[in-house]
């Protein structure tokens, strides 16, 4: 396959990009715009920028396009937002989730995104969202690479059977272990959840991505707890905005 009339970052002239079996084999400057009469193995970039795909590292696909359902977050605060979501969550169905996810993914792809990491709430005894989105992975694999975080929105230790639901999420296809220590009922629960999350990830060879200290509370100090848990269990964490990603041990 050849991509013609492509513009590259930092370059003023046009280029032809040659691809064989999914690998770029040559990038050659063009002396002029090539004829738009294409054969089946050519794509005309029409002078537009050709670059690496974008990555969406943090989205909640289970909750997309639900603003105002059933009520708006009047205060604009994190905690009211979580409360509004807890009211919407019982209304989830596989059809509802799939329709919203596919619409959102289409928007992302149209804007150059090909890699998505989505947090999916697993504080739901039926795991409706987790199962539905995991089931869409293969369907979407031709256009995006989807990575799923098992996200315990209402806590691991504070939510009934929270630990069991996290383990079930792994069985249903979760790639990453999440957490939200500052939303647990007590600091002790928050600390326990961080050590448990790292241990679970190490046990299954999975990544860790935690919503950690994302609130305006100076007393929320779980980042060092998570880092210490990783150090003690010889796990490596790389920092990201708000969250952390576990990259091996």
UniProtKB/TrEMBL annotation:
InterPro entries: Amidohydro_3, Metal-dep_hydrolase_composite, Metal_Hydrolase, Metallo-hydrolase_Enzymes. Residues 42-229 form the Amidohydrolase domain. Gene3D superfamilies: Metal-dependent hydrolases, Urease, subunit C, domain 1. Transmembrane segments: none annotated. Signal peptide: none annotated. PANTHER family: CYTOSINE DEAMINASE. This is Amidohydrolase 3 domain-containing protein. It comes from Agarivorans gilvus.
């Amino acid at each position: 396959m050849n991509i013609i009339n492509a513009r590259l970052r930092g370059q003023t002239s046009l280029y032809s990009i040659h691809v064989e079996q999914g690998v770029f084999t040559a990038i050659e400057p063009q002396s002029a715009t090539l004829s738009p009469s294409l054969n089946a193995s050519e794509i005309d970039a029409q002078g537009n920028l050709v670059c690496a795909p974008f990555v969406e590292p943090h989205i909640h696909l289970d909750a997309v396009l639900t603003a105002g359902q059933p009520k708006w977050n009047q205060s604009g605060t994190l905690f009211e937002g979580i409360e509004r979501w807890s009211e919407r969550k019982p209304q989830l169905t596989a059809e509802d989730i799939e329709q919203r996810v596919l619409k959102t993914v289409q928007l992302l792809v149209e804007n150059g995104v090909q890699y998505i990491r989505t947090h999916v709430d697993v504080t739901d005894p039926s795991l409706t969202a987790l199962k539905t989105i995991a089931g869409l992975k293969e369907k979407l694999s031709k256009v995006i690479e989807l990575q799923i975080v098992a996200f315990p929105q209402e806590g691991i230790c504070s939510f009934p059977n929270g630990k069991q639901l996290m383990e079930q999420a792994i069985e249903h296809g979760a790639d990453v272990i999440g957490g939200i220590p500052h939303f647990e009922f007590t600091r002790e629960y928050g600390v326990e959840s961080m050590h448990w999350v790292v241990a679970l990830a190490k046990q299954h060879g999975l990544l860790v991505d935690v919503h950690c200290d994302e609130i305006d509370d100076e007393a929320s100090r779980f980042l060092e707890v998570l880092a210490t848990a990783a150090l003690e269990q010889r796990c490596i964490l790389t920092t990201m905005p708000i969250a952390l990603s576990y990259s091996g041990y």
